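Course exercise 7: structure representation. Students receive a sequence record and must write out the corresponding structure in token form. The form below is the worked example handed out in class, using PucR family transcriptional regulator (533 residues). Read each field label carefully; the graders check that inputs and outputs are placed in the correct fields and that the protein name is recorded exactly as given.

STUDENT ID: A-19
EXERCISE PROTEIN: PucR family transcriptional regulator
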Amino acid sequence: MLRSYITVRDILQRKHFERIKVIAGNQGLTRLVKWVHIVEVTNIRNLLKGHELILSTGVAWKEKEIFISLLEQLIDSQAAGLCIEIGTYTSSIPEEIIDIANRSQFPIILFLKEVPFVEITQDIHALLINRQYQMISSLESYSQVLNKKLLTIENYGEILKYIQEYLHIQVIILFNSKEIQFFPEAAEYERKALLNVIERSEKVSSSSSIARIPIDLLGDNYAELIIISNDRSLTEFDQLILDRTATALAQFFLRELYVAEKRKVEETEWISSWLDGDQSEDSISEYLSFHMPAIKPKGGFVCLCKLDSFEEYSDLDLTYFKLYFRANLEQRGFSLFAIEKRNTIIFIILNERSVSTWKNRMKEGIEGLLGSEVKIGENKLNPLIGVGRYVEDLVNIHFSYQTSIETIRIKDRLSSTQTESYFYDDLHIFRLISLLNRHLDLKEIVLEYLEPVIIYDNKYNGKLLETLKTYLSCNGSKQETADRLHIVRQTLYHRLQKLETLLGHDFMNHEKRLAIEFMILSNEFLISSKHIK
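STUDENT ANSWER:
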């Protein structure tokens, strides 16, 4: 590759520079040269744009103070260097000038014989213009190579390796996931030093040794591509190469996301059909053999995780949650498939250990998840979790799915004090209540049994319904009921008398008592569901 920049050292190899002497700023010979000026004035600060090589006879700055002022202007203006013709107007350079130039690594070159400045400028300008044309050609060739690579490569690292070898600089890519890649690879101490350079550059408006560009996908910042040079200033050509590379990377990442999304859609469709009961035993066995060849499941079940404000979570947040849940359960003998539907993550969980212990292991996994300090986005994990019925034959996983939906439906309507279990099998009476509520007017049935008590409590701000529930749960023990309600027995007797008046003296008879207890729970279910006020 043709080098994309010209330095002072390169210029010194040209014609008319055979008889020269570098008397100061040897360490600055790597400075870039973008143009050449002949200067014979004392005030040039506003005439320079940076990286100019200055040619002069020194006729205007014979006095040391004027010379120092000119030198400081050149240094401040980021000039590339100063070439002075010795003999006609200048015979020697003061030591103070040499010291200032050395401290700033600013080259001062002496022509030891008279030289034609016009021919020098023509030669160097022709070189610069020709180099610019060649750079444009090189940029086009670079872009063509990148386009060809995009058709064949399988890893973005090949693109980063290509720009690193092309420009001979350090390449770093920072992903929004906090992952960092270095090309070439760097030792730990080198990584820290490079990251410090990047951090410092963020606080400085410009830096000639570092260039960076964001990689945007679908309107969002996906990563940032950075190049750093330790031995030269970066040029516009480096910036153009960086821009072309970032574009190629964006195309590669977009293609990868598309392929991943397409694969995800295909997997989601298959798992959805499994959850709907549309997959045969053979197709399930074939799918598991392909995706999880090492496992021998003894059955499985479905677990739903319902998240509030689902749209607030990014794909990265949800992926992290699924990975954490997977890691939590895999160590307890489970394997998982996961898909997302609306505001719910659906896990098909396969059991590889004893069937008799699956429930305890699953409970430990859920409690470990909820008790952790893991966050999704800015929020601590707090999903509503429902586990469906366990099935030994995986072709029946749709039964577990339906019961997990019912579990979520019930838990979503009840308070945590009413049902603390995550499992469909533990909901017992609430399963019947939920079923009745979907097929009958449960509110009407509840009022048939409890309306007098509800009306009395609303009218007198009483606590008859609470007393009735506690009395029934204590199996009619007056002493235990009074203790639980923290009331004296005389108050309890008065309330029980009122309940007999409202419900009938037979409200403690076996069949009626069972019905009343069922209606009390149904009433709480409806209140939690906001169907009764």
